[in-house]
Design goal:
The protein is α+β, with helices and mostly antiparallel strands and about 500 residues long. It folds into three domains: about 110 residues, no CATH class; about 90 residues, Roll (Pdz3 Domain); about 210 residues, Alpha-Beta Complex (2-enoyl-CoA Hydratase, Chain A, domain 1), CATH 3.90.226. The chain is built from 14 helices and 21 strands. A hairpin with a 2-residue loop joins strand 11 and strand 12. It is globular and about 70 Å long. The relative contact order is 0.18.
């Protein structure tokens, strides 16, 4: 059994995999169950639907975080493990506390947990009731190579029979797949964009791509008479954040730059960062507070009360370590939104006791819980992965900081009352890190005055309730970690 800790981003099934980054403690793997499985050597029946349901029952009864709130059902009424799982977790799903537990395969899970790889055009969009704007374009993807850039408005799509406007597509009930194409390498679309009053027609062909973890390069924002403010736009907690492809930047590169330039005030832009690997989050905290917090816990993994020894075991905690490139920012302004989730929230919450922190933008998503992965073949003696490529991702733990503070699940970090939020609206017409972009400007104002500005302006995405009520059915944008980010193309 593998208990991989998961604080996850949409679309990319990113997994919290245990700590790295300078020797921080790695959470120990809890046993899958006490009885060790059926012991059957009949591989055909050992991995059939009935066996999968038995496997799910065994795990959820012992390890589900809210095990005492599950529904009691008759498992013989179900012919699939997913159906049985959904029935057991129905009370939590109905109140939207758990949107993350699911059946999967080991192969599917491992394909995307560390790289963020997916097939697509390589851009992220923001949608209002009738308009769609490009808000991020991945430098390694086909859209960027074709000339698509942040701030462009998509106004029409040629799906093969001539251009249709978004309004026309919506009016005739076109599906998301019809508009943007199947998730297959080689699928192409011709998009018509409006870019500062100029119409551009750009053809983009889908590829398998791995978006760089850092958007662009770490920046220095100069200010008179003071050391520069560091700026880092961090997209996702994937391996590339520590070991990027040639030509891209790592968290250590950024930290080294900030250290060399004497940066004491830092902007970390997590506006679209839905989470990822705990190992990367752990290293990021070491790079930002490994000196001030050295030796103290940075986070703790806490499971349900059926396993008190696990919760008290310090090997399941992260510990701040000083790394060769560790910087020493005194104040950090985190740019956040309703899409800032999981590992992003973990980092902010973990740094808060050691660094002065402010949130800029909007409150975070509120995902404090994580998913362990149980591989079915490991629970049955004699069963091999090749015979049973089945896994369960189950909400099994919550994460608190070194002072045991959490309580942000479903309400966001600002919702706890422990964080200052300088509310501001995103200006997608400006590049990331531009001092005139409203979120960056708001952070700079906070560094200068120590207070949130009274008013800000910009192009704001509507809140999530408004988005749900206004969007055409083929343009859903609700952010659901570990499901599908419909903003990602």
């Amino acid at each position: 059994m593998r208990f991989l800790h998961s604080v996850v981003q949409v679309t990319f099934a990113l997994v919290i995999t245990g700590c790295s980054g300078g020797g921080s403690s790695s959470p120990a793997a809890p046993p899958i169950a006490d009885n060790g499985g059926s012991g059957s050597n009949d591989t055909a029946s050992a991995c059939d639907a009935a066996a999968q349901i038995d496997f799910v029952e065994e795990v959820v009864d012992s390890w589900y975080l809210w095990y005492d709130e599950m529904a009691a059902v008759n498992k013989s009424d179900y012919d699939s493990a997913q159906g049985y799982l959904d029935a057991r977790l129905a009370p939590l799903i109905d109140e939207r506390r758990d949107l993350f537990s699911r059946m999967t395969t080991i192969t599917e899970d491992e394909t995307s947990i560390s790289s963020g790889a997916y097939i697509g055009f390589g851009f992220r969009s923001q949608t209002t009731a009738t308009r769609l704007f490009i808000i991020d374009v991945f430098e390694s993807g086909p859209a960027y190579a074709a000339g698509v850039r942040r701030g462009m408005e998509l106004i029409a799509v040629d799906t093969g029979a001539g251009f249709e406007t978004l309004e026309e597509l919506s009016a005739r009930g076109a599906s998301n797949e019809e508009i943007f194409g199947a998730t297959e390498v080689g699928v192409s679309r011709i998009f018509r964009f409006l870019d500062q009053e100029e119409e551009l027609e750009i053809e983009v062909v889908k590829e398998e791509l791995s978006p760089p973890a850092l958007a662009g390069e770490p920046l220095l924002i100069e200010r008179a008479g003071l050391s520069p403010v560091g700026y880092l736009h961090f997209r996702q907690f994937i391996d590339a954040a520590l070991d990027p492809a040639d030509g891209y930047f790592s968290l250590s590169d950024a930290s080294r730059l900030f250290n060399e330039e004497g940066v004491t005030d830092l902007i970390v832009d997590l506006r679209y960062n839905g989470g990822g690997l705990l190992s990367v989050a752990d290293t990021m905290m070491d790079l930002l507070a490994g000196i001030t917090g050295e030796g103290d816990p940075s986070y703790k993994v806490q499971v349900n009360d059926q396993h008190p020894d696990y919760n008290e075991d310090e090997s399941n905690w992260g510990i701040f370590d000083r790394l060769p490139d560790t910087a020493s920012p005194i104040r950090i302004a985190f740019i956040t939104s309703g899409g800032t989730a999981s590992a992003s929230e973990l980092v902010i919450n973990g740094l808060d006791p050691h660094v002065e922190v402010v949130l800029v933008g909007a409150d975070t998503y509120g995902k404090q819980v994580g998913q362990g992965r149980w591989d079915m073949h490991e629970s049955i003696e004699g069963l091999e992965r090749a015979d049973c490529d089945i896994a369960l991702r189950l909400t099994a733990f919550e994460l608190v900081n070194g002072e045991n503070q959490g309580d942000y699940h479903q309400i966001g970090l600002a919702g706890t009352g422990r964080f200052t939020l300088c509310a501001a609206e995103e200006d997608i017409s400006k590049a990331f890190g531009d001092p005139e972009e409203t979120l960056v400007a708001t952070a700079m104002d906070w560094f200068e005055s120590g207070a949130c500005p009274s008013a800000v302006s910009g192009l704001a995405p509507p809140n999530r309730a408004q988005q749900r009520s206004q969007l055409a059915p083929w343009l859903p944008v609700e952010f659901i970690p570990e499901r599908v980010d419909e903003n990602l193309r």
